[in-house]
Amino acid sequence: MESDSEMVPFPLLTTPIESNYRPCTIPYRFPSDNPRNPTPTEIAWIDLFRNSIPSFKKRAESDTTVADAPTKAEKFAQRYADILDDFKKDPESHGGPPDCILLCRIREQILRELGFRDIFKKVKDEENAKAISLFPDVVRLNDDIEDEGKRLENLVRGIFAGNIFDLGSAQLAEIFSRDGMSFLATCQNLVPRPWVIDDFDTFKEKWSKKSWKKAVFFVDNAGADVILGILPFARELLKRGTQVVLAANDLPSINDITYPELVEIISKLKDESGKLIGVDTKNLLIANSGNDLPVIDLTRVSQELAYLASDADLVILEGMGRGIETNLYAQFKCDSLKIGMVKHPEVAQFLGGRLYDCVFKYNEVVG
């Protein structure tokens, strides 16, 4: 984990940050709520995190890099459940009141303290290998669409379809372990538009008239998400002359892609002349975001990312954790896109949408 002194605010957040930015979209409580009693929203989210314990425990048990993994996995499950129970008794315990960042951070801390560095490594590697083999076909299918607007919509649908590979959702972890997931079938079976937040038509109109000089793209999961969803979209931006910075996690968290993993994937996908299926990659940069959670607080990013992002004119936050649960209402000094699939019933309820609904939020900054 990077030390506090090395972390800085993301330079494109609207200032003053203190009054303009709050890194959790869904308020678990309001100032008028009794600080000693948990709110109904807190209880619902504590239960959601509790429901994820069995799938995390199962992954941890089979981590061959950790000695005595089954015993330590049981310790993790017990410790995390106890802390979640404590929050229900006293929301101000353990650094509370809880929000999605704190609940994620405590889960990661317990795993790391017990020696678990990356319990999803095996499934990430398997999914990356599958997605790498499908990448050329997915790109060709997109390239074959001549109409620019239809191609853009297909690329966006690919991001949503890829984003379903999320083992932080208890239901999806169950479906995944049972049947796996077909990327192309998922593309076809997205919920019909209009999506719960649907600025796609506005964005499509801008896309036809405007080009951005530099885009910073906060990426989410390994496998189909980053390889079949994000990278074809990033490649399309590169074709249009946009410099693209892909920002990935410093440390592993759930099945999110990490900076070293993304560097390796890109090197596997490039041909001998350094191209990504015919597209030059000299304007593709990969940055370590400094983050170590499946959500992100943009007041704390690496200096490297802050430096690379300072002159960007488009920020894209992808995935439920970064794009919806923590930064849906984040305001930037430049254009921004928040793209993600709704994979928790609690998020669907908050947004007034359906489970597996899609969020495509575009904000343009004029001038």
UniProtKB/TrEMBL annotation:
Signal peptide: none annotated. Its cofactor is Mn(2+); Ni(2+). One of its GO terms (biological process) is coenzyme A biosynthetic process. The keyword Manganese applies. It comes from the Eukaryota. This is Damage-control phosphatase ARMT1-like metal-binding domain-containing protein. Residues 50-359 form the Damage-control phosphatase ARMT1-like metal-binding domain. One of its GO terms (cellular component) is nucleus. Keywords: Hydrolase, Manganese, Metal-binding, Nickel. One of its GO terms (molecular function) is ATP binding.
